[in-house]
Amino acid sequence: MRSRIENPHAAGLPHSARTSIWIALVAGSSVLFSLALACATPFAALVTVAGTQMRRRDALSLIGVAWFLNQAVGYGLLGYPRTWDSFAWGAAIGVAAVLAAFAVSMAAGRFGSTIIVAGGAFLAAFAIHELALFAATAVLPSSAEAFSPSVVGWIFSINLLALAGLLAAHKTAVAAGFLPAPALMRPSLARA
């Protein structure tokens, strides 16, 4: 017995509408992450799922919307300071997410197995995201403990748990016929 619905319009909506709803749901989850974790929103996990499971345009849209919502929650609800360095850190987070997305596309193209693709892409996304943020400390103020092993380990754990949840949500959406099954887990951000 098959576990997923074969009808591409099983959800009653065209593919573009289902993709837009998926982007909104996953990006919306970033609001919950932002409310619960503030600066620890799991962008590496979001980027990994987007970059390995979606078309390039859709993946970049998801990343952009998630970043925007993270910043809106931070400045609108959590009271982030409205200072040049705070805005610059927000921009650095966005740049780091885009760089991580391209790391996913490069890493995902090097592995064959689905779980290995997700694992390799996630490790690449996390490493590039953290390195990009660490590089920003060359010009932006930061505390010494911001990149301590305990803090980076905590961020890694959050991202790993978020990745598991997001991949499970994606698999459920595919099984229900809401999203099309990816032909292969390819680096979507590298596709033309």
Blueprint (SSEs and pairs):
Elements (H helix, E strand, L loop, with lengths): L14 H23 L5 H11 L2 H21 L7 H25 L5 H23 L12 H27 L17
Approximate helicity band: 55-70%
Strand content: under 5%
Number of domains: 1
Give the topology string: H per helix, E per strand: HHHHHH
- What class do helices, strands and sheet pairing give? mainly alpha
- Gross geometry: globular
Radius of gyration: 17 Å
Please provide the count of β strands: 0
N- to C-terminal distance: 36 Å
Mean pLDDT value:
84
**Biggest sheet details:** none
Textual characterization of the structure:
With 192 residues, this protein is mainly alpha-helical. The chain has one domain (15-179). Helices cover 68% and strands 0% of the residues. It contains six helices and no strands. The chain has helices spanning 15-37, 43-53, 56-76, 84-108, 114-136, 149-175.
